[in-house]
Amino acid sequence: MQPSTPVTQQLPQIAAPTQDEKTMGMIAHFGAIVTGFVAPLVIYLMKKDESKYVAFQSLQALYFSLASAAAIFVLSFVLIGLFIWPIAVVFHVIAGIKVSSAQHWEYPVVGKMARQKIYGA
To answer: For a Cys-Cys bond, which of 57, 59, 71, 88 suits 25, CB 3.0-4.6 Å?
Structure first.
């Protein structure tokens, strides 16, 4: 018998899962690796009324997949920013050097927009 922890004390007493329930839970978790949130969602929708064990396992996998996808989405912007920032610094340095020696300099794309706005050409 395992010692009680605050989490296990909150869980209701349930019957041991059947082999089919274990298999469906395993498919939900491993399926998330291949399909993202799709496999856990499908299993949850199919089995939520039949087995609380499968519903719990698939819902866990679904929530974790969605949270992971959100984290990856946010971090991808951060990482892209980390790669773009040094490039921006290089362009600013080039512009500063060119301007300090009275040479004409325009940034790619935005230089033309600024020229049109200020000089009309």
So the answer is: 57
